[in-house]
Amino acid sequence: MADTAYPDPSDHRQVGPDFGPERLLVETILDFHRGTVLWKTAGLTGEQLTTRAAGASGLTLLGIVRHLADVERFWWRHVATQTADGPLYCRDDVPGADFDGGDASTAEADLAALRSEIEAAKAAVADLSLDQEFPSNEGGPMSLRWVYLHMIQEYARHNGHIDILRENIDGLSGE
Fold first, then answer.
1. Where are the beta strands (DSSP E) in the chain?
2. Can you tell me whether residue 91 is helix, strand or coil?
3. Are 134 and 47 spatial neighbours (Cβ–Cβ below 8 Å)?
4. pLDDT in tens, 137-158
5. Within a 10 A sphere around the Cβ of 43, how many other Cβ atoms?
6. Is residue 130 packed enough to be buried (19+ CB in 10 Å), middle (13-18) or exposed (0-12)?
7. What is the domain class of 20-170 according to CATH?
8. Average pLDDT, rounded, for the chain
9. What is the tens place of the pLDDT at every residue in 71-126?
10. Helix or strand or coil: residue 153?
11. At what angle do helices 144-170 and 61-72 cross, to 10 degrees?
12. Can you tell me the mean pLDDT for 63-76?
């Protein structure tokens, strides 16, 4: 039987401490989930990244990568710090352009965009307190703490989708 576990060298995740300051813990957990996306998309071709591998669903690994790049930009740099313009992929005239757009030829650039947005997000909020407040989309206050928790939820949900897609593409699974 073939080994269906991911090889360790492609594991981009960093496991952090189980205790410590709140900021360290939320950053570590989010970085673990960010790394999981990179780990589970590693080693695939552009064609594999754009494979619709979950039955009737049109979801692809590349669509999730593009969506997460937009989410990174939106929450950290558009909403929290107001340092970024609009989204990379989402468009008002094309709902779902992040999930549905891209093709095998854009895969490498789209993965690089996600990595870039992650680094830009980290830099944008590095000196802010978790209690930092800013206006939400609804106009009321929102804290940086909420954004961290929301992003952990966002990545965790999509990592579940990624598990199913990757296993259906090449049989690999991992935790």
1. 133-135, 141-143
2. strand
3. no
4. 788 899 999 999 999 999 999 9
5. 13
6. middle
7. mainly alpha
8. 89
9. 999 999 999 999 988 889 998 888 788 998 789 999 999 999 999 999 999 999 99
10. helix
11. 170
12. 96
Per the CB < 8 A criterion, the answer to whether 40 and 85 are in contact is no
Query: Can you read off the two tokens belonging to residue 86?
Result: 């609009």
Structure token pair of residue 29: 């957990």
Token digits for 104? 């095998």
The structural domains of the chain, with segments of one domain joined by +, span 20-170
| pLDDT for residue 2 is more than 50 | no
**Structural contact between residues 21 and 148, judged by C-beta atoms closer than 8 angstroms:** no
First to last CA, the chain: 19
Quickly state the pLDDT bin for 12 (edges 50, 70, 90). low
Give dist(CA 152, CA 27) in Å, integer. Answer: 9
Please give the C-alpha separations between residue 18 and each of 23, 26, 27, 30, in angstroms, as whole numbers: 12, 11, 12, 14
* Helix or strand run (H / E) with residue 122: helix 107-125
What tokens were used for 118? 């992650």
CA distance 152 to 167: 22
Cβ atoms of residues 33 and 152 within 8 Å:
yes
What is the C-alpha to C-alpha distance for residues 25 and 97, in angstroms, rounded to an integer?
Answer: 33
